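[Meeting: bench + compute handoff]

Bench side (C.D.) handed over the final construct sequence. Compute side (W.E.) agreed to return the predicted structure before the next meeting so the bench team could plan truncations. Sequence as handed over:
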Amino acid sequence: MKQEDTRQKILDKALELFAAKGYDSVSVGEIAQAVGIKAPSLYNHFPGKQAIFDAIVEATAAQYEADTDRIDIHVQDVGQDIPVFTEITEDALFEKVRQIFSYSLHNETISRFRRMMTIEQFRSPELAALYSRRYVGRVLDYHAGIFRALIAAGEICPEDPDTLAMLYVAPVVTLLGVCDRQPEREAECLERLRKHVGLFFRMVHGKTPESGGDDGTAR
């Protein structure tokens, strides 16, 4: 096995174990055994378990950015996506949300990383802060930035963009957590997601059953 292949296998197996058991419950020996090498050989690639964890964080962030780039989601650069959401239809918005939801749920690396961080956020203040930045702060900031631009363009109601971001994101994160715990409920959660996106879309565009405008087109 090539050195780079062994290194990647160490990361893959470590993530699998961390997601299932938690960081503290996994030893270097267990990781080496899962990879099919002896513990001393693992140290040829990483100086210790913390280094493996740090490499997983870095590699997963890079993978997420590369993968979501293909569906015009750039959480790290909101400016790239403002044109995508300008005059977007309700159906197109739901399809974009469905894609990122399904990717987050079914991509094995991303799913395992999220599960690992769900556990590890309680292990240390540093990991709690990392969890908050990655799964709360930057996601809210990204959507607030989108809403701020749409408000400035007169496309949606002039409400507080940070509050809109919370209203929009919280149900998505909740439904993702439900699917993590109960994967058999995915179809139900997708239907709830569709209804949430539709209701939010009509709300921010000032469309109510009384006012009409329920054809899925932006104002």
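W.E. noted at the follow-up: Residues 185 and 215 are 29 Å apart (CA to CA). C.D. will use this when planning the next construct.
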